[in-house]
Amino acid sequence: MTLPKIIRLEVSLKDARVVEELRSRVEELEARNAKLEELNNRYQFDLVCQQKINLQLQDYCREAGYQIPKRLFSIWKSQN
What we know:
The protein has helices at residues 16-63, 70-79.
């Protein structure tokens, strides 16, 4: 013989005004998140472009026989 499973159900009702305030807040947060994601994507793109330019400059300096001081590399590494 198997015993019946106990099911616990809790229901709470919220005032419609509270629900609308929460929905409004969720919309605000989603809009803010979308803006922050867009800003983050732009910063990541800028960083990739800067890295490519930096590598090209290093190649040009190497081809021209100019030695880039090692301390510049250590400064760059410490900032990333």
